[in-house]
Design brief:
It is built from 1 helix and 8 strands; from the N terminus they run βββββββαβ. It is mainly β and 129 residues long. Strand 5 and strand 6 (89-96) form a beta hairpin. The longest helix is centred in the C-terminal third of the chain and has 12 residues, at 108-119.
């Protein structure tokens, strides 16, 4: 299990499975649109977690689009931080050995709020090789 900070104004729910897996959801409604940050932590059954963003847009890169992947070190091991800015929308997936944190297709204002939550995890970026 990991700890994170939830800024004021975000709605938080947690579902705990019998095997110990945790599904955390943080939502934000802005301008009539609901955005969601999902965090998943493994239970004892070892349910596989996401290791890459297979379901993100795969269209040709457009002007103004940015894609980045960086390595992260968490208390339980290394992970990767995937980010995509595409057509004015944002995607982010932080993987770590015991789970992941992800938001998809959110406006910049939601991405900024969710990044504060993800960046509060006990993980830090590793310098590039």
């Amino acid at each position: 299990m990991f700890e994170f900070c939830i800024p004021h104004g975000l709605k938080y729910t947690r579902v705990a499975e019998i095997e110990g897996a945790l599904h955390d959801r943080i939502t934000l409604r802005s301008h009539g649109e609901l955005s969601e940050l999902i965090m998943f932590t493994h239970g004892v059954n070892g349910t596989p977690a996401k290791t890459s963003p297979e379901d993100w847009p795969s269209a040709e890169q457009t002007p103004g689009e940015t894609v980045s992947v960086s390595q992260w070190r968490c208390s339980e091991g290394d992970g990767r931080d995937f980010r995509l800015h595409h057509n004015g929308r944002h995607w982010r997936l932080l993987t770590f050995p015991l789970g992941f944190a992800e938001y998809k297709d959110v406006p910049p204002s939601a991405a900024e709020r969710f990044d504060k939550v993800i960046d509060s995890l006990c993980c830090q970026p590793l310098p590039p090789n």
